[in-house]
Structure formats: structure tokens, C-alpha cells
Amino acid sequence: MVNKSLLKRLGKLGYPLFETEEAQDANTTLAEVVQSKDLRLWEGFPVVLANSAERGLFDYEMVKWHLKKPFDKLNLGPLLVMSLALYKVINLRFSWADKFYKNLNRDDKKRFSSLLKKLKKNEDFKVSGRLMSSQRLKVTFDNYFNQERSKLNDLLSVKEELGLEYALSQVFSPKQKELFLKKLRHEKLTKTEKEYFSRVVKKKALALANSELHRLSQRLLE
């Protein structure tokens, strides 16, 4: 029986079998996924690993430290190698994954090459003696990780929009900002708006576009 607390905490790291409001310890969660020996959770290991590492939460030595039993420690390596092989097959590049691959020993690199071939051919493979499906591994990753990445991209877009809104507010009055954005969106302006835009807003925009002014502003902020 899989620990319910573990299942809930997985939701915060991109594998939401259940929702939770609890705080997360990514390395403890990764260790518990290893310990579970549950194939459903092992299929989600690459998802949790990628989301944890991308957020700067993954520490291999800490995960290993949480694994007290020798055979659990032995299971960690194959799951990590499996994850690296999956990322490679689906052309997903992570700088932290590249560094981890470089530190693999000869046996793990052989395991990586073998898994790579099986994943490319959608063949079943074994991890620590457990038979796993290439197809299910790929589908699981696609279903969960890409959802999280989409949410992150949406969040970054909102953050960028808010940053632009703030910057515009420092230069333009509310009315001037409205005209500036309408012009960018190629929306139709009234005759009065056109005159005001040419007389006031355009002059400010030209000043902002001046490369020398931009360079000097950058120097002031150094």
C-alpha cells in the first residue's frame, strides 16, 4: 500500500495523483518514490525529478541520504539513469541532467545506452528487476510534466506583462499608456487620440527608443 501522504505530496512536484496544501521536501519525496517500489510511481519519477531539479530543489546526495536501506540506494541509480535516457529520447535538454550524465560511471553509461535503444523502439525494459513500459513512461511524462511547464509559461507571461505594465506606468500617464498600447495593437484611434498621440506619446516613445539614452540609463543602474 502506497503511503497516502507521499501520493499527496507528489502533486506539488508535478505528479498530482492527489491535491495537497502541504509544504514539500522534494528530496524526501523522491526518496519515498524510490522506496515505494510501486511501478505507477516509478513511472512518474522522471516527472518529479525534472520538476524538482528545474526549481533548484534536487540534491542527489540528500535523496541518497534519505534512503537508509542498501537495496533502496541501489534502486536510485537506475531510476535516475532511466530519467536521463527518457529526456534524451524526447529531446528535452536540461543543464543539470547533462552534468549528471557526465558523472555517471561506466556501468551506468552502458545502462543508459541500453535504455536509450529500448525507449526509441518503444520496447519494455527492466529497472532493478522490474519490467516497465517505454510507452507508459513517455505518456506519463507527457501528461504531467508538460502540464506543469505550460502552467509555468503562463505564469512567466503574466509576470512579464505585469513588469511591462509597471514600466509603462513609470513613463506614461494612464491615458498615454492606453494610447501607446492601442497603437501597438493597431487599434483604430479617434482624430483627437491621433493628435494627442503625435503631440505627446510619440515624443516619449522616440526618447525611449534612443539607443544612447538606453545606454546611459543602463550605466546609471550599474
Structure notes:
By secondary structure, the chain is an all-alpha fold. The chain has two domains: 145 residues, no CATH class; 49 residues, no CATH class. Helices cover 73% and strands 3% of the residues. It has a two-stranded antiparallel ribbon with strand order 1-2. A hairpin with a 2-residue loop joins strand 1 and strand 2. Helix 3 crosses helix 5, helix 3 packs parallel to helix 8 and helix 5 packs across helix 7. It is elongated and about 75 Å long. About 4% of the residues have low confidence.
How are the SSEs placed, and which strands pair?
Elements: H1 4-10, H2 26-36, H3 39-54, H4 60-66, H5 70-89, H6 95-102, H7 106-120, E1 125-127, E2 130-132, H8 134-171, H9 174-184, H10 191-209, H11 211-220
Antiparallel strand pairs: 1-2
